[in-house]
């Protein structure tokens, strides 16, 4: 299973696919709702929306729920890029190691860094 540089809650931009003027999602930005590392996919808010037809069924309370539901489908992780918080443009992710002292112990912590501006993410 691969380790990703994109995590749940990050703001990402779609960098591949059809352009927005042709009905696609390229260029759209959204928050990562879920990461599926075993499938190399991420679920992004407002991106790759699909409609699912549900048959009306009887629920325990006696109501019938059915119709067309629209929700997001996962996107391959290679098709999204993290957005730099400083200038709202897509950026690559790098790491910087820092030594932090806590409770008399020295630890090395990896911090995500924007390759575009050098700022911490």
How would you describe what is shown here?
With 121 residues, the chain is mainly β. It has two domains: 1-83, SH3 type barrels (Roll); 85-121, no CATH class. 0% of the residues lie in helices and 52% in strands. The protein is built from no helices and ten strands. The chain has strands at residues 11-14, 29-36, 41-44, 49-58, 64-72, 75-76, 80-83, 90-91, 93-102, 105-114. A six-stranded antiparallel β-sheet has the order 6-3-2-1-7-8, with no helix packed on it. Strands 4-5 form a two-stranded antiparallel sheet. The radius of gyration is 19 Å and the shape is extended.
Characteristics:
RNA-binding; SH3 type barrels; six-stranded antiparallel sheet; 2 domains; 52% strand; two-stranded antiparallel ribbon; 0% helix; Ribosomal_uL24_C; mainly beta; 121 residues; single chain
List the helices and strands and how they pair.
Layout (H helix, E strand, L loop, with lengths): L10 E4 L14 E8 L4 E4 L4 E10 L5 E9 L2 E2 L3 E4 L6 E2 L1 E10 L2 E10 L7
